[in-house]
Amino acid sequence: MTCRLFSLAAVACLLAGPALAIDYPARKPGLWEIQTGEGGAATAKAPGQTIQQCIDAATDKAMREMGQGMGKDMCSKQDLRLEGVKLVIDSVCKIGPTTATSRAAMSGDFSSAYRVESKSTYSPPLMGRTEGTSVVDAKWVGPCKPGQKPGDMVMGNGMKMNMLDAMAKMPPRK
Fold it and tell me: I need a labelling partner for 113 at 20 to 30 A (CA). Which of 31, 70, 85, 135 fits?
């Protein structure tokens, strides 16, 4: 579970990292279904997780800005470039005493679907692992459900939270 949460946080940083010469595409407002997994496929050993997230333009921007801040605090390198139709990000980030060197490739139109594939190496090992891979597949499923507000997330286990509320409770960055 901890590794899965780290994967989600890492992907959030990658999706929301600093805009360089190429800007990250904004996602279409509405309800997104996001499937995460390690190594590209859910298995009994490493089951994937499905999250539903309601966003609007302001929420999407706030999450990108949060990721930018996390990237500035944690990463000594975050290089973004366009390779064909994919956005590729190479990063070097500190997670406690561990240095994570990662490459992520993002593809899709961000209006109906996108995919992020990432591979990382950890030195020294992170939670006993020297490397890890993750895949995020996201698709727009329509308008947010009645009663949902931008920032609302429903985790695979049914737990609900609002990202904007959670971000507001975080201590200010130094």
Answer: 70
pLDDT in tens, 160-174: 999 888 888 877 665
For the chain, the 3-state helix, strand and coil shares in percent, each to the nearest 5, are: 20, 45, 30
CB-CB contact of 95 with 68 (8 Å): no
Taking alpha carbons only, the member of 42, 36, 45 closest to residue 134 is 36
C-beta neighbour count of 130 within 10 angstroms: 11
Do the beta carbons of residue 163 and residue 60 sit within 8 Å? no
Average pLDDT for the chain? 83
Q: How many CB atoms lie within 10 A of CB 99?
A: 15
Type and span of the H or E element at 65: helix 57-74
